[in-house]
Amino acid sequence: MLHIKVTDRESISNKRSVMTLIVSLIAGMTAMGLIFLMSGANPFYAIFKIFSGSFGSRYGMMETITKAIPLILIGAGLAIAYRAKFWNIGAEGQLLAGAIAGTWVGLNWGPHLPSYLIVPLMFIFGFAGGAFWGAIPAVLKIRYSVNEVISTLMLNYICAEILMFLIVGPWKGKTKFGYPYTDDLPASAILSTITGTRIHYVTLLLGIITVIILGIVIYKTRFGYEVRVIGENTHAARYAGINFFKATVIIMVISGGVAGMAGIGEVAGLHHYLLYPGSVSSGYGFTAIIVAWLAKLNPFFVILSGLFFAGILVGGDAIQISLGLPAATVQVFNGTLLVFLIMGDYFLKNKITLKWAKG
Amino acid sequence: MEKITQLEMVGISKSFHGIPANDDIHLTINSGEILGLLGENGAGKTTLMNILYGLYQPDSGQIKINGQRVKIRTPQESMAVGIGMVHQHFALIQPHSAVENIVLGYQHSPLFFPQKKIQDDVLAFSKKFNFDIDLSKQVWQLSAGEQQRVEILKALFNGADLLILDEPTSVLTPQETQELFVILNRMKQEGHLIILISHKLDEITELCDRVTVLQKGKIVGHADTKDVDKRALARMMIGRDVIFNIEREEIPRSEKVLSVNNLVVNGDKGIPMVKGITFDIHKNEIFGIAGVSGNGQRELVEAITGLRKSESGEVRITDTDITNQPPDKIYNEGISHVPEERIKFGIAPGLYLYENAILKQHRSDKFSSRLFLAYKGIKEHARGLVDAFQVATPSIFIQTKNLSGGNIQKLILGREIDGEPPVLVASHPTYGLDVGATEYLRKQLLQRRKEGGAILLVSEDLEEISELCDRIAVIFQGQFMGILEADDPNIKDIGLMMAGTLQL
Amino acid sequence: MEEIIISVAQRTLVAGTPLLLGTIGEILCERSGILNLGVEGVMSVGAVTAFIVTLATGNPWLGMMVAIMAGMLISIIHAFASITLQSNQVVSGLALTMIGLGVSGLLGKSYVGIPLPVKMNDWNVPLLSDIPYIGRIFFMQSPFFYMAIVLAVATWFVLTHTSLGIKIRSTGENPKATETQGINVSLVKYGCVIVGGGFSGMAGANLSISYSSSWIEGMTAGRGWIVIALTIFALWNPTRAVLGAFLFGGIFVLQYLLQPLGISPNLLGLLPYLATLLVLTAIGMRDSQKLAAPAWLGEPYKRGER
Fold first, then answer.
1. Do A116 and A230 reside in the same domain of the chain?
2. What is the largest CA-CA distance in chain C?
């Protein structure tokens, strides 16, 4: 009879962590290959196409970086929220709230202000919009024990409806021939891009600065220490006199705020006007959840995992065109990878020994 | 299945992570007999019984019932052959009624309306053994003694011939203990086999017919209790003559440090658990609080250390009022705290040892500026603690959950007394630790007393309390039944006070 | 006026039915201690499979059965991750939602916009449907409505009055104690997650072959999340879930009712989500939530070696 024995692994080396990660990713892609096979596509070609589409050419690479911008910003914010075991699933709504607030500033103040004033103002308002939207579930959780998974999700829907209301109603652009868009932002409020690409480098720079700051916050500061204690053991946090209310609200202000910056970055850098919620963000708030998870909630690693998932998004577009697979393929891919990452964690924490024994 | 008349365990061995917990154990028990299994914490008693109950598989050895070899792989198989177990921590579902709890483990529970259908049978059983419990009440509404009777009833109702009781008196008042003994003797007369796990000599000699002594996983002796010498048993259990090698010097207590005045504290359910308690602790004094757990000790300690708001009354340290201040403020005022359930409250298990070495002190100037933590100093501090308090660890860069319980407790105690705080509050500091660690920690507490510390020691372990404390308060249902000097002749009646029958 | 009231009441029940089905499934799952955030994805898979099978066979009952099976099958992912691998239940539930939404988009791509020639027809209960007013509101409904009510009562009955129910509740309250009573805790949880997934699949079928008779991506529109909120609102009690589901059904109907007043459809569209937030906050103001929640909800349980 085959005996399976599961024991805790006492210490985990870095080498083992990296190996497990690689094996999980490969296993996830293999599973995805099976799904391609079932949808009638050649799995090797499809997976090759995903990565050649995103990392295989200069154009693909640049697009990948463009899409990595919001993923890195949001992923870093989610990483610190999840460190404190606050399950923020509402980055999508926080992104939209930031886009709304930032666009308002851009449209109303932009015509009267030079670029070097209006751009920082838009990002500040974008941060504030996302931060406000993120602080609501924090307060609801601490004061009224409202489950944050549900509240953040509900706030996603609410923000999307508000955005729709604005672009079909009061904010509808006069120059848009009846389409539900706002007018274009004035030229001073539009972010410049690296020539020949869509990379709005101001947001990219902000993303990298965010990662560095949040990395320092988590690992070097007193606040980061308190966040990690809360995440590890709430009883110990109470014992240590850590103020939950304050810490949770601060975390969500940061987490929502950076998502808001990503939102205004997308509008001012790519679209130039406010449009359908599904077009402002192609699900970045959700993809960033896996970005944070793959980075093991370490803000620095978010840059790598953000690029990786941006690549999958770009490659997903590539296979949509060349293989005729629907957009949902990418979602399946992401979900499947997440499942395999979870499995990887299990094999990392537990030692599994198989042995044959008689009887 | 035929009735068990004799059960044998033959050559049972079991090890965890290469460390033997049971080593070649042989024992026999016959019907109408109560067998005591005596040994210290960690001697392997519970492991051995969990093997009998099917929770663990032995690495080698066999179990025989009425001379026939049986295989017990799961609790179900154990119940099927007629074995029942009452765990030290009750295996009861708190929000369910007693009957529902019995349905859960009963093998012949009907699928539909099980509560109604078995209620009468359960009641009949309950009457037969004089259990006197309200079966429709939810378990959390029952006292510890009643809950234990539900456990016993559950086992008997399942047809258990052999009943294993793991430290059954640890949660009982002396009166409830006597009631339990009456029930067990009654069962013995009915022909049941009973195994009593305990580390208390008195109850073993009072109740059991025979006793088997375990030490570090091995059997070190058997005896009939009618002709046993308690001193010899104690020596067998501990493995040396003197129980604890601790001397408490006479030190006159000096000025008052901590004073608690008419404190009232509510429990989790919003009802008062501490009902107006008053006491002072002085420099060079260990003040003990004895009592069965759940009588307000936790709430009292949490109110003093700032983890719980008090309803009325005050707590002062020297002349500062610290009533209802936050925990870090109270720490700064000079009260440190070794919490009960060390892993649950005292550490963040996934953080490194050095990070846990400053928990609650992380805001002090020594370890942080307004923004940043001073990791260099923190690491030095952690190394210092590890050396000074003999924490056995490969390095300070190890996740704290990988340390043993004793080493975690040494780290916590070290962290809490390193800055020589005027007051130390210690809850059950040696609970569940091995002899070496226990002795070490007790010596540290006495050392702290000698240096001028004032210590509030909460413990269920009367031996610990009486060895260490200068004065002992006995708590019962949120009130002190009296405060005794260590040499007070009334100390022999401490059991009565714990049970609430005597107030001084 | 009379006409309007009857129609509103009738449509409230229609809109509440899929919510009720999903909520019963989640209650069952959470009572065993597993938080399943995958409902939205599972519902979506149920909707698409029911639609495809009904379109292919012309038999909505077959469509519903396949949707239930599909819901059960895909829920195994969450069961395996949260029970066998003891992973974080929030994360694995989200993974299930992503996979479910993705798979349904993948399967349903070529079916978007096709109208269904046959759908699950409403069924008039003989005699009862003739009762004035009451008959039109309660007894001229889709079979899904009757099934949802029966299943809610049945789930309540199983949980409170059977030994199986006691095992399920005990598992969610205290898996360790339950295990020492010789009960296979993992098996109980697997059963609850999978059967609960079946309920969600059925709720999805309700949407695509009865509530509307078409398939579009995202047609579950957050109902899977509202279901999780309703589980809390119901305090984990299936009979209270009936009340909650139809209350929320009423809010969905309110959107259409208020539209003629000239309020923006988008602002009305956020009503159910806003209501969910408000209801959870209101429950949080009282302490009943903490008392009623299964004690081990969402906590991974590891069969202890020691």
1. yes
2. 68
Question: Does any domain span residue A105?
Answer: yes
pLDDT at A1: 58
pLDDT at B354: 93
Q: A326 vs C109: CB contact, 8 Å cut-off? A: yes
**Mean pLDDT, chain A, integer:** 91
Q: What is the CATH number of the domain that holds C68?
A: 1.10.3470
Confidence of residue C170 (pLDDT cuts 50, 70, 90): very high
Spell out the domain ranges in chain B: 6-238, 256-352+400-498
Residue A306 has pLDDT above 50, yes or no: yes
pTM for this predicted structure = 0.88
Claim to verify: residue A207 and residue A237 sit in the same structural domain: yes
What is the extent of the structural domain holding C16? 2-114+130-290
Of A10, A232, A240, the CB nearest to B327: A240
Is A242 inside any structural domain? yes
Query: For residue C129, what are the contacts with CB-CB under 8 A and spacing of at least 6?
Result: C135, C136, C139, C140
Q: Report chain B residues whose CB lies below 8 A from the CB of C167.
A: 104
Which chain B residues are closer than 8 Å to C181 by Cβ?
75, 91, 104-105
Which of C102, C277, C284 has the CB atom closest to A154's CB atom?
A: C277
- Chain A: give the shortest CA distance to residue C128, in Å: 39
Mean pLDDT of A310-328: 86
Interface residue of C48, C98, C259 to substitute, partner A, most A CBs within 10 Å? C98
HSE (side-chain half, CA atoms, 13 Å) at C136: 11
The structural domain count of chain C equals 1
Please state, for a pLDDT cut of 90, what percent of chain C lies above it.
64
Within 10 A of C130 (CB to CB), how many other CB atoms are there?
Answer: 12
> Which chain B positions have a beta carbon within 8 Å of C165's beta carbon?
none
CB pairs under 8 A between B and C: 68
| Cβ <8 Å between B372 and A221 | yes
Checking if the pLDDT of C304 tops 60, the result is no
Please judge whether B111 and C162 are an interchain contact, meaning their C-beta atoms are less than 8 angstroms apart. Answer: yes
Find out whether A66 and A282 touch, Cβ atoms under 8 Å: no
Range of the domain at A349: 1-41+325-359
- Give partners of B (≥3 CB pairs < 8 A): A, C
Rounded to the nearest 10°, the torsion over CA A274, A275, A281, A282 is: -160
- The total domain count for chain A is 2
**Do the strands B310-317 and B256-266 form a parallel or antiparallel pair, or are they unpaired?**
antiparallel
CB pairs under 8 A between A and C: 136
> Closest to A233 (Cβ–Cβ): which among B331, B349, B373?
B349
Whether B346 and A236 lie within 8 Å, measured CB to CB: yes
Q: In the block, which residue shows the tokens 């789930």?
A: C155
Same domain for A342 and A300: no
Residues C138, C141: Cα–Cα separation, whole Å: 6
Q: Is C119 among the domain residues?
A: no
Q: Going by C-beta distance under 8 Å and a sequence separation of 6 or more, which residues neighbour residue B127? A: none
| Equal fold, B6-238 vs B256-352+400-498 | yes
Q: What is the CATH number of the domain that holds A290?
A: 1.10.3470
Instruction: List pLDDT tens digits, range C213-265.
Output: 889 988 998 999 999 999 998 999 999 999 999 999 999 898 888 888 888 88
Name the class of domain B256-352+400-498: alpha beta
Residue of chain B whose Cα is closest to the Cα of C164:
B111
Confidence (pLDDT) at B240: 52
What does the mean pLDDT of chain B come to?
A: 87
Say yes or no for a CB contact (<8 Å) between C266 and A147: no
Q: Are residues A143 and A286 in the same domain?
A: yes
pLDDT < 70 regions, chain B = 1, 17, 41-42, 238-246, 499
Rounded Cα distance, B436 and B66, in Å = 40
Q: Which residues of C touch A331 (CB under 8 A)?
A: 98-99, 101-102, 105
Higher pLDDT, A357 or A82: A82
What tens digit of pLDDT does each residue of C128-144 get? Answer: 888 888 888 888 889 99
Residue C96 belongs to a domain: yes
Domain B6-238 has CATH 3.30.70.1140: no
How many angstroms separate the Cα of B378 from the Cα of each of A98, A232, A255, B209, B333?
39, 19, 29, 56, 21
- Which chain B residue lies closest to C176 (C-alpha atoms)? B91
List chain B residues with CB under 8 Å of C306: 16
A331 and A275 share a domain? Answer: no
Question: What is the rounded distance in angstroms from the CA atom of residue B107 to the CA atom of residue B120?
Answer: 17
